[in-house]
Amino acid sequence: METIYLLSACFVLATVHSAASPPLLGVHPLDAKYFASEVIKCKDGSKAFDRARLNDDYCDCADGTDEPGTSACPAGKFYCKNLGSTPQFIFSSRINDRICDCCDGSDENDGSIRCPNTCVMGGNFAYKSDDTTPFSEINELSTVSDLDNIYAKETKNRMKLDDLIQKLLGLKVVIIIQLFLISCAVSFRIFQRRARSRRRSYR
User: Residue 149's pLDDT is what?
Assistant: First the structure.
């Protein structure tokens, strides 16, 4: 019976540890550790704020440190990951302004518009097209039907990628749980052997 309780406790611990927090919106990967602590300093050193006030759409730091993912701070900068293309920073005033500035569409995250991910094509049609192509032809390429086709293909690819990521995460969780269960079983066996040896020594 004790074994069941011990294994159940290990399973719960494995599940808790395997749950990963989502990445912070608008933050450069190198700054992730900076924002990981519970109390965070403004980068200009003016003051500090707790993690709950991060991206709460209220500007606490004059330099915009506390609002990397909103347009609350005029001096703020938003980081576009743009996987498949060139990462970039944009001004915070461009966040949720109903214009897709990041080729991955991450700057429009309030759900008011749907931005197709054009990163795999170099960020936009004009970038992909030949320099000799007239501007009028570039505009013809950028029709709504073209964007819908691209969005459909991108959605399919993204779904496949998400499915693969979910399978890998599931596999990771299973491996972690198995390691926990094995270590718990080994610990329990060691505990049993020590208990038996103590009983024998008392006899």
Answer: 58
